[in-house]
Amino acid sequence: MTDNSAATEVVTDLAAEAAPEAPLLVAPADGTPEVICTSERLDEAIAALAAGSGSLAVDAERAHGFRYTQRAYLLQLRRAGAGTHLIDPTAFDGTPALARLGETLADTEWIIHAASQDLPCLHEVGMTPTRLFDTELAARLLDYPRVALGTMLEELLGVRLLKEHSAADWSTRPLPAEWLTYAALDVELLIELRDILADQLVAAGKDEWAAEEFAALAAGASTVAEPRTDPWRRTSGIHRVRTRRGLAYVAELWHVRDEIARDSDRAPSKILPDVAIAELAAIDRPDRTAIYRIAGFQRRQARRYLPDWLAGLERVATLGDAALPPMHIPSPGPPQPRLWAAKDPLAAKRLTRVREVLTDLATEHRLPAENLLTPDYVRRLAWSPPDPLTADAVDAALAELGARPWQRRLTVPGLTAALIDD
Fold it and tell me: Which of 19, 185, 191, 243 is the most exposed place for a label (fewest CB within 10 A)?
């Protein structure tokens, strides 16, 4: 028999030496504020926040996976001297009230964790910052391996956050008290977290990099993304559909579902799952009988719209071949890298060299390679380098794609050398 007593003693000692679990933050220091849903109380909040000092912590809760839109259903704001304010934006629909709040605080630095997620819904209600500090992006530039808000607060401030309501349906009214506490805690320590990360950025010599990144986020805060071409082609399971008519069924059912979801303000997946659309479209001649055999169409929400699904099938069945969508549409960018070796061996070799350069630079400067340079920029540059191939031309090409000055300063020399074909 093997004697494991020594190993057991080592494990026990290590466990004893391990740091105790960080305390759980269960309530804001000043208590959970009531939700603001009247003009009078909003005026009071605007005045209080305007009289506060320093940066403004901002968060927004959406109902992703429950509602069709990505609108905000709760806003959380906190500022030194003003405390925390929870605002129900739906109470001010059709009014300029929140735009006035945004204008009052526009020139203040806004602290947002993962700003790209919240900026669109904030802009939708009239709140667009001119300056911001993204704590998640700052953590990425500092090469933290995990950058979720709860993880950062635990590591840098020694507290844990409640996270069980992160995927809740925030369109629920009235909002449960425990949800409001969770929401208030999301901004409780955001200012303190920002200050620690700002000091670390300075110490690492990355504060100018972060400033450029934050400025670009703020500049794009009011930009509305262009709709995708043929968004139905992203339907999960579409790879099972092998014919153009099958794709037409996917497109038709996707659009029928989208219209139903938009009119009822429900997430499309709550009406009918993607896999059900793909499964039906993969059948040679889908009909009512086929619908009855597919589990996704037997959900209560899907059954309500049986006439709509059948009408969609009939419309596609009558389409001539010329009206059917192509199996593939040309990509505006380079092909997938796995195809490069066959399509353009020189480009494939360039991509390998370029990636090696960026990996080495990312390691040297201790940050993720994707933050050093956006992967799409890398692929476009390697697929179609500028001609003539000079450092200035590479710099200009990256600038046109959207690379920040700090990224270009670090990468252009190495990229230029790597792009030269043997």
Answer: 19
Q: What are phi and psi of 414, to 5 degrees?
A: -65, -40
Q: Please enumerate in sequence order all residues whose Cβ is within 8 A of that of 108, keeping only pairs 6 or more positions apart, or say none.
A: 55, 56, 79, 129, 131
- Helix H or strand E encompassing 75: strand 74-80
**Phi/psi of residue 374, nearest 5 degrees:** -60, 130
Q: Bridge-partner residues for 110, per DSSP? A: 56, 132
Tens of pLDDT, residues 197-248: 999 999 999 999 999 999 999 999 888 778 889 999 999 999 999 999 999 9
Q: How far apart are CA 392 and CA 221, in angstroms?
A: 29
Domain 19-219: top CATH class:
alpha beta
**Torsion sign, CA atoms 242, 245, 251, 255:** negative
- pLDDT category at 10 given cuts 50, 70, 90 is very low
**One CATH from 3.30.470.10, 1.10.150.80, 1.20.1420.20, 1.10.3430.10 for 231-323:** 1.10.150.80
pLDDT band at 19 (very low <50, low <70, confident <90, very high): low
CATH topology identical between 19-219 and 337-419: no
Beta bridge pairs of residue 85: 77
Q: Considering the domain 337-419 in this protein, what is its CATH number? A: 1.10.150.80
Sign of the torsion angle spanned by Cα atoms 70, 75, 80, 84:
negative
Q: How far is CA 152 from CA 17, 79, 261, 262, 391, in A?
A: 22, 20, 36, 37, 38
CA 29 to chain centroid: 30
* Among the listed residues 277, 265, 271, the one whose alpha carbon sits nearest the alpha carbon of residue 231: 277
Domain boundaries, the chain: 19-219, 231-323, 337-419
Q: Find how far residue 262's CA is from the centre of its chain.
A: 21
